[in-house]
Design brief:
Blueprint (H helix, E strand, L loop, with lengths): L4 E9 L2 H4 L16 H11 L5 E5 L6 H11 E9 L5 H15 L4 E5 L1 H5 L1 H7 L4 E3 L6 H6 L12 E5 L2 E4 L37 E4 L2 E2 L18 E2 L2 H13 L4 E4 L8 H14 L4 E8 L6 H9 L2 E9 L3 H6 L6 H14 L2 E8 L6 H14 L3 E6 L7 H8 L27 H16 L2 H14 L2 H11 L2
Parallel strand pairs: 1-2, 1-3, 3-4, 4-5, 8-11, 11-12, 12-13, 13-14, 14-15
Antiparallel strand pairs: 5-6, 6-7, 9-10
Helix pairs in contact: 8-9, 9-10, 13-15
Length: 472
């Protein structure tokens, strides 16, 4: 019998991180990219001399079978699972399988936005031994070198002790991001990560996060891991990592920052360095930038540096609702940004939400009309999800409007009934969700423009396929 391999840590990404989109209108446009956070965490742990592996379940056909097979082959001392709120049920299931049958002796830890928001609840409802609160770049390696009886010395940790749940003081955020290692991309089968052409130009696609923290305070957004203070890698360090990512086998990079252009001078310098070094790759700002944090010079530099697409969180076509969200932008800011994008010749993607506080049938239609007016290359809409530990969640909770804490239902693209809206029924919001996609994408002017663009770029068959999938 083959001897099991001794592994210090296995990092697990739940399969539903992609499957949450399976029934949505954007199911055809989901990029398949190795998860940056666990690649970075693996590198940090490995720098301490530990043996670490990654189990990325979203790209595995039968995740549970692979999970069982992996633990049959290995004997990991610690298994870490990262998860957001809608992934919580699967994370709990995975932890239960490991504890109850696959490897009872393995220490189980969790991390990410959901356990950071609800650490006590997560431990009370699952078999996790401990969960990390906030950033764990510096605390996870320490945890691996600490015996359970001394876990109280690890900051930013919630854990069980003598039948009770204990929580230590929050850990400090990483101040010098330049000191972080490059992600451990060698732990992934890079050539297998192929994204649809609607969201990429070259494959395989990698990712990068060049900054942490968002200085803005939109009431629907959870900032409890990275915080509201903007911390950034230097431009030189960013481009060094981009070169490393390309040498690791990727041909395109998606930027996943909360706000890549918060420091616009730095964003421009990154583009200048890419140009100076002659790096040949395509990239896009997938997570988006604010419509009031760009100028034409930046857009032209980004295009010269290989950027082809930028996303924007617009959210609503009604100014009063934008103000309620504390978005800090105006409808004219949106118009100006999209006008600049068209002038420069960059592809634009706009994100919207419906079901916002104060929303009515009229304001939902205003959002649809505004999306059509802006006329981006692609537009997406989601039904508001009041995520735990956000201001909008507490707002609805105070009004007794939260009707479900079944976290798998907290999915932006399934429009499931999780709260009672003061003005709208679930049926009205769901109908508006589907109406948004019909009215935006089935406009004759949009179809004609996109047909010509697809023909010129040699993507006609691909785009026809994506259109069919969007409306099927």
């Amino acid at each position: 019998m083959q001897k099991k391999r001794d592994i210090d840590l296995v990092l697990i990404n739940p399969s539903t991180s992609l499957k949450v989109y399976a029934k949505s209108r954007i199911k055809a446009a989901i990029p398949v990219i190795p998860l940056y956070s666990i690649a970075l965490m693996a590198a940090e742990v490995r720098a301490r001399g530990k043996i670490v592996e990654i189990l990325n379940l979203p790209v595995i056909e039968d995740p549970l079978a692979e999970l069982a097979s992996y633990f049959e082959r290995t004997r990991p001392r610690v298994a870490g699972i990262t998860f957001t709120t809608p992934l919580y049920p699967e994370a709990a299931q995975i932890a239960g399988l490991i504890r109850n049958s696959l490897s009872p002796e393995t220490v189980l830890i969790g991390g990410g936005v959901h356990p950071t928001s609800l650490p006590e609840e997560t431990l009370a409802e699952t078999v996790f031994d401990a969960v990390f609160i906030g950033e764990a770049d510096e605390t996870l390696p320490d945890f691996l070198e600490t015996e359970p009886q001394d876990w109280s010395s690890i900051p930013g940790l919630a854990f069980r002790e003598n039948g009770q749940i204990r929580k230590t003081e929050r850990s400090e955020q990483v101040k010098d991001l330049d000191r972080l290692p490059f992600p451990a991309w060698d732990l992934f089968d890079v050539p297998s990560y192929l994204s649809p052409r609607i969201t990429s130009r070259r494959n395989p696609v990698g990712s990068i996060i060049t900054s942490r923290g968002c200085v803005h305070r939109c009431i629907y957004c959870n900032k409890n891991v990275l915080g509201n203070k903007f911390r950034a890698l230097s431009a030189e360090r960013v481009v060094d990592e981009m070169e490393f990512t390309l040498k690791s086998g990727f041909r395109e990079i998606h930027v996943w920052d909360d706000q890549f252009s918060t420091n616009l001078k730095r964003a421009k310098h990154i583009c200048e360095l890419i140009i100076e070094r002659g790096l040949d790759f395509t990239w896009n700002i997938f997570n988006g930038i604010r419509v009031n944090s760009l100028d034409e010079e930046f857009l032209r530099l980004a295009k010269r540096a290989g950027c082809y697409s930028i996303s924007f969180g617009i959210e609503s076509g009604n100014q009063t609702l934008l103000d309620t969200l504390q978005k800090g932008i105006t409808l004219d800011d949106c118009r100006r940004a999209l006008s600049l994008m068209k002038r420069v010749g960059l592809e634009s993607v706009t994100y919207f939400m419906i079901g916002l506080p104060g929303e009515t049938e009229q304001t939902m239609q205003q959002t649809i009309d505004f999306a059509c007016e802006l006329n981006a290359d692609y537009a997406k809409v989601a039904v508001l999800v009041p995520l735990p530990d956000t201001e909008v969640y507490y707002m609805f909770e105070r009004e007794n409007r939260i009707i479900s804490r079944e976290w798998s239902r907290y999915n932006f693209h399934l429009a499931e009934k999780i709260f009672e809206h003061p003005n709208l029924s679930q049926e009205q919001m769901t109908k508006a969700y589907y109406r948004f996609y019909r009215q935006f994408y089935l406009r004759p002017s949009y179809i004609g423009r996109h047909f010509i663009k697809s023909l010129v770029q040699g993507r006609l068959l691909h785009d026809f396929y994506y259109m069919i999938r969007t409306f099927s």
